[in-house]
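lol ok so funny story. i was supposed to be doing the assay writeup but got distracted and ended up predicting the structure for this chain instead. priorities right. anyway since i did it might as well share w the group, maybe its usefull for someone
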Amino acid sequence: MRLRYRYMTTEHQKLYTSKFWLLSISSFLFFASFNLIIPELPDYLTSLGGGDHKGLIIPLFTLMAGLSRPFSGRLTDTIGRIPIIIYGVLVCIAVGFIYPLVTTVAGFFVLRLIHGMSTGFKPTATSAYIGDIAPLSRRGEAMGILGMFGSLGMAAGPAIGSWVALKFGYTWMFYCSSIFAMLSILVVLKMPETLTKKERFRWSLLKLKRKDIFEPRALPSAITMLLTAFSFGTILTLIPDLSKHLGLVNKGIFFSIFTISSLGIRAFAGKISDVYGRVPMLMIGCFLYGITMIMIGLGTELWVFYVGAFIFGIGAGLTSPTIFAWTIDLADDKHRGRAMSTMFIALEIGIGIGGVVAGYSYDNNPDNFIISFAISGLLAFAAVGYLAWYWINHRKATP
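and the output, tada:
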């Protein structure tokens, strides 16, 4: 039996427990909540008079998420996983009810900042909790299943949100987002805490030192995440406009296709990475990202758009659970929260910069789609190069 530092985990503990499934369901509901509104936000912002600033919708959200990560990482490792999960969801609930009350562009962007705090807290604590309860030899598999539920939420959310907006209007779309968040918090309220040596919250915990912001052991996974998350920023920012340009009424179709296509590969990829290592899986996934970005940027027909969404989903299915598991592998056991925070900060920076670059290089001109997508594709290929260098120098990533 291998003992874990401060956590209630042993190598012989079962993976598929009620705690695991409840947390997975909560993840589904949470991701559905904040993704539910994404496809309609560009048009909603335009209705407020801010159409020229669509490129800020995603970056402002991810900016606050990134700024929140060091705090969520430290608090996850001190006051516990469950309190941080609950706090992140409460932010989602509150913001969903406030969106319809805001009628100015400035107010909308303030809410986007606040909304981003939710993803800065909840996923960090969720990943650390799964790392606590999953056996080492099945960690990739655990992250794959958790990611599958998150992907289901990402797929269901945009499709539901666009349908609600079309049938009932933007106000009910925002309310629907809050309802999904409420359900996600109800699922975890009775779950036991896995951090056995907890501390009481005190304001001094919010005073961060450099070591609290960055976990050096997680640098390889953070670099990989940064380079690939740029593609997500481009997708989240431009797909609604590209969908409309191609004649699609429901702007959530792309998100549904790519997410559903990732479901079948996630658990499989996690299991394979447990056996053969994280880096080979990541190289394949990053390569698929690069191919997809170029394909979507050059495509002018719906079938190319759909195929691109499908391949992008496969790439996401390969990389997401693998990079999460790799981050936990690289981390010291007592700093899992900080390691996940470091990786998530890279995610937010990549998505944020990707959204800004995509929005302003596109500049509401369909002829510029190829420029924005090509930049993302080149960075994804750069990730492949970095992983190859890492593989050569480290021989084999330990699963």
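DSSP finds 14 helices and no strands in the chain. Confidence is low (pLDDT under 50) at residues 1-12.
back to the writeup now i swear
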